[in-house]
Amino acid sequence: MNKSLVNKILITLGFLLAYRILAYVPVPGVNIDVIKEFFDTNSNNALGMFNMFSGNAVERLSIISLGIMPYITASIIMELLAATFPELGKMKKERDGMTKYMQIIRYATIAITLIQAVGVAIGLQSLTGKGGESAIMIDTTTFITVAAFSMLTGTMLLMWIGEQITQRGVGNGISLIIFAGIVSSIPSAIGGTINLVNTGELNFLVVLAILAIIIATVGFIIYVELGERRVPVSYSRKVMMQNQQKRVMNYIPIKVNLSGVIPPIFASAILMFPSTILQASTNPIVQKISDFLNPNSYTFNFLMFLFVIFFAYFYASIVFNAKDIADNLKRQGGFIPGVRPGEHTAEFLNEVASRLTFWGAIYLALISTLPWILVKSMGVPFYFGGTAVLIVVQVALDTMRKIEAQIYMSKYETLSAVGL
Question: Which residues cross the membrane (predicted)?
C-alpha cells in the first residue's frame, strides 16, 4: 500500500471522526434529558429508525440531527427533474453545467433543512418530561431561530465533509457518512441485546437465530450486488488496430441492482415522515393511523415492499440510459453480435435491463422487509431491518473496490516508471 493511498484513508477517517464529534454537539437551549427520555420510549417506531440512521444524533438533538437526509432529498428531487426536463438533463451532462447543477442542489438543501429545522423546533414546544419539565429552556422565538441556524450549520458541515471525503479521501463521502452513522449504533444495539438476555427478556437461542439471519442477509446482499449481466460487444478490425495500446471493453456490464440503495432510503423517508408527524397528535383516529405506519407494524413493511419496487423501477430508468450507451457504442465502431446498431441496440439493452430490474426490485424489497418479519416472528422487542444492513454492505463493497482500484493504479504507475 503506497503512501498516497494511506494518506487518503487517514483523511477519510479524520473527517468521519469530525462527523462523530459533531453528533455530540447539542442545539443550544435544549434540555437533553427530556429529549433522551422521549426517545427511550419511542425507540421502536419511526423516530427510533431515524435515530439509528443519524448515528444517535437525534436523541441528543445534535446540530446534525437532520443528518445528510436534506442533501439526499435535494439530490433525488434534482435527479427526477433532470429526467423530466431535457434542458436540466443536458445541463447536468456538461462540465460547466454540472457546477451549476450541484449549486442548485446546495441551495435546495438549505431550503429543505430550514423547513425541517423550524418544524422540529416548533414541535419541541409541546414536549415535556415525566416531571413536567419543558424540552426548551429559553424563549420560544429565540430557540426557533437558534435551532434553525444551528441545524442548518450542522447539515452544511456534513455536506462539506462528504464533498471533502469524495475529493480527497477514499469512497463516496455522503455514503460513508450514512455508513458511519449506522455502524456507530451497533455497539449500543449489542449492549441493549446483552441486557435483554441478562434480564431474561430475550432467549440466548433467539439471539443466535438473529445472528444467523444477519449473516445470511449479508451473504445474500454480497452475492446479488456482485452479480451482473455481461452483454458481449464486438469491434471492427480497424477499431481494434487503432486501440492496440488501450484496453477496449468487450462487454457491457449491467448490474442486477441498477438503482443501488436509493429505493429503500427514499421509501423509508416517505413512510417515516407522516408517522413522525402524526405521533404528536392525541386524536384516537390519528393515533391508529400512526400505529399502522409504525416501522414495527406489518402495514408499514407491506407498504415498504411496494414502494421499494416502485422506486427501484423508477430510479433504474433514470440511471440506465440505453440510448446513450447505444449511441456511444455505434460511435466507437462497436456492436452487439446479432443486434443491429442504433435503435435496435437500445431496445435490446432496455429489455435486458428491464428483466434484471425486476429481480433487482424483488431483491431490494425482500431485503428491506424479510429480516424484520423473521425477527418479529421470534418475538424480539426491538427494531431490526435489512435496509441498514443493505446500506452498510453496499458502501463497504464500493469503498473496497475504490481502494483496490487505487492499489492497481499505483502498481501500473510503478511499472510505467521502470519501463515495463
Answer: 61-83, 104-124, 136-161, 173-196, 202-224, 256-278, 298-322, 356-374, 380-397
